[in-house]
Design a protein that fits this description.
Blueprint (H helix, E strand, L loop, with lengths): L1 H13 L4 H21 L6 E7 L3 E8 L20 H9 L3 E5 L6 E8 L2
Antiparallel strand pairs: 1-2, 2-4, 3-4
Length: 116
């Protein structure tokens, strides 16, 4: 997940986003990739896609499991895990979601980070 964080940060920096947005892109990418790796036992792994949009940056994570929809749980601040989507939701102001790929061959989870 550190590699996803680093790649996302390098991309956002190269795109000229402000420092705060770069950090948000890094954290969102890391959290979404971590969720996909932790909860998906897929044959083709995980794909990270980053691109600009009208509001700022979009982070997409593609995985091969359409049976596990991402959900925000109640954050348990005692456990070491379980806060990823809570963090993503907070950083994006709720501007995230997911959808199944064609023929239920996986899903994509996306999040948009507004440029400040």
């Amino acid at each position: 997940m550190g590699e996803a964080r680093d790649l996302a940060g390098q991309w956002a920096d190269a795109e000229g986003f402000p420092a705060g947005v770069i950090e948000d892109v890094r954290l969102v990418a890391s959290e979404l990739v971590t969720n996909a790796v932790a909860h998906v036992a897929g044959s083709w792994g995980v794909v990270l896609r980053l691109y600009r949009c009208d509001v700022g940056a979009v982070v997409e994570v593609w995985d091969s499991d359409s049976a596990y929809p991402p959900r925000i749980g109640e954050p348990d601040f005692v456990r070491e895990s379980g806060r990823g989507l809570f963090i993503v939701d907070s950083l994006t102001g709720g501007l995230w979601g997911w959808q199944c790929l064609a023929d239920d061959k996986g899903k994509v989870t996306w999040a948009a980070i507004r440029c400040r």
